[in-house]
Amino acid sequence: MSTRGLGGVMVVVLGLVLLGPGASEAAQSKLRTQYSGLVNLNEATVAQLDLLPGVGPKAAQRILSWRQKRAFKRVEELVRVKGFGKKQFLKLKPYLTLEGPTTLKLERVPVEEDEVRATGDSVAKR
Questions:
Q1: Whole-model pTM above 0.90?
Q2: CB 34 within 8 A of CB 106
Q3: d(CA 102, CA 47)
Q4: pLDDT 10s digits, 45-62
Q5: Contacts of 60 (CB under 8 A, 6+ apart)
């Protein structure tokens, strides 16, 4: 290794030493996604459905296709859409409605200390 390459390594190591524990604490601060509001299954757009946890654009489009054939009469009918089983439905149920406007929003918030186990893992991934 040339002295030029070795100097670059020294700069990186020195930088890590000088930054100290504060830099590693910032890297360890975790964020979680917090959902609030509701999605109206009979009126939401693909983009709004895509905000639901675990629902991507393809799944959102399948909901739209289902809805074009027949409107949802109950939120539980979501399990009839391909790709949505009972387990997925139970995860989404708190955010689903058939009345009113779609108001679902998501934001990244820091994980609070009481949400972290002794192992450092997040208690609940939402």
A1: no
A2: yes
A3: 11
A4: 999 999 999 999 999 999
A5: 46, 47, 49, 50, 52
